[in-house]
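User: Please fill in residues for this 337-position structure.
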């Protein structure tokens, strides 16, 4: 387990504080947030690349001692780290993918076996002997991923692993990450701009906004039945919810899980009638202050979490018990399976 306890770092006017974060074995975590919010910096502290100015990082309940170089080397070896701007070098695709295994002293025969298997898994096996020249951005990204994922490590840290990948590339990446956490018990921590990807892969999403870190447990996950009501449009229902519309490009049958990003839900004092939008009547259950916004729980059959600013709360004069409508687009509802 990796634990950060108010690990803090400052650059000029930028200040990042991890608060308390715990990363457990076998789980997948995703850091999301806008550009420059501090995701890469936080990742570097988690991955032992960067020593915090204050606070601490612990690995397996032991505070990391950055001064002991042999010990640092040993614990860093347990982390397969992919930097956001990691460079490939002028050599073949195979040589690039083999790099991590080489420096870890693997036998050439084993390197060959493993690298080829990983290249095939990422569907770039046919590129093995190619030089990097002329590779597309997406292909280069797959090479970087191969170099990282070919290593057996208890912990994988990947900064923007899906940058530049096409849909198929993202699918392959997701398959590998899920299998590593499930079959090998690996801990995986990655950053992503794709909210959908974050929600699909990770039950634990950590939001980083302007250096402020707040864990966002997976919110608004609903399980029930779906019924087709139009082209790409479905009605969702379960014992608590009757009508919730969502869209899907894929055919949906029977049981399904959905997630609605708390930031995609708007609160309205009046009922809103438009097609392609949901408008569920509900009651405010609780209001909680978090670092970046107010978190409101609204009961509308199921409990929904919504994030709003302090200003909107004051404007709407909401208190527990207030009657309110939850408004969100059918396209804001993500299908998880
Ligand atoms: P993100 O990965 O979310 O885009 P970063 O962690 O890369 O954000 O950067 C957060 C902030 O810290 C930015 O304002 C960036 O310019 C600054 N920063 C990052 N690394 C350094 C550094 N080595 N020196 C000075 N400023 C830095
Ligand atoms: Mg970054």
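Assistant: Residues filled in for all 337 positions:
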């Amino acid at each position: 387990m990796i634990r950060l306890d108010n690990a803090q770092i400052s650059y000029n006017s930028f200040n990042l504080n991890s608060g308390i974060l715990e990363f457990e074995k076998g789980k997948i975590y995703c850091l999301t947030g806008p550009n420059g919010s501090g995701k890469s910096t936080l990742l570097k502290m988690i991955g032992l690349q960067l020593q915090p100015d204050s606070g601490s990082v612990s690995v397996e309940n032991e505070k990391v001692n950055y001064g002991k170089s042999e010990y640092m080397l040993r614990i860093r070896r347990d982390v397969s780290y992919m930097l956001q701007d990691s460079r490939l070098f002028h050599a073949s695709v195979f040589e690039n993918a083999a790099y991590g295994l080489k420096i870890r002293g693997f036998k050439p025969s084993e390197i060959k076996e493993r690298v080829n298997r990983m290249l095939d898994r990422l569907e770039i096996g046919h590129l093995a002997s190619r030089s990097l020249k002329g590779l597309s951005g997406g292909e280069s990204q797959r090479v970087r991923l191969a170099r990282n994922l070919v290593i057996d490590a208890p912990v994988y840290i990947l900064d923007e692993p899906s940058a530049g990948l096409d849909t198929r590339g993202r699918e392959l990446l997701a398959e590998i990450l899920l299998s590593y956490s499930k079959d090998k018990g690996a801990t995986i921590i990655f950053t992503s701009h794709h909210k959908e990807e974050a929600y699909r892969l990770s039950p634990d999403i950590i939001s980083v906004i302007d250096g402020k870190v707040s864990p966002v447990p997976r919110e608004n996950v609903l399980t029930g039945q779906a019924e087709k009501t139009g082209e790409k449009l479905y009605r969702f229902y379960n014992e608590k919810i009757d009508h919730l519309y969502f869209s899907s490009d894929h055919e949906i049958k029977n049981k399904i899980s959905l997630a609605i990003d708390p930031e995609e839900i708007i609160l309205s004092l009046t009922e809103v009638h438009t097609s392609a939008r949901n408008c569920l009547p509900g009651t405010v259950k609780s209001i909680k202050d978090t670092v970046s916004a107010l978190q409101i729980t609204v009961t509308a059959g199921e409990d929904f979490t919504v994030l709003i600013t302090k200003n909107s709360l004051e404007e709407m004069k909401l208190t527990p018990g207030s009657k309110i409508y939850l408004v969100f687009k059918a396209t804001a509802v993500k299908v998880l399976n």
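For context: The longest strand covers residues 277-289.
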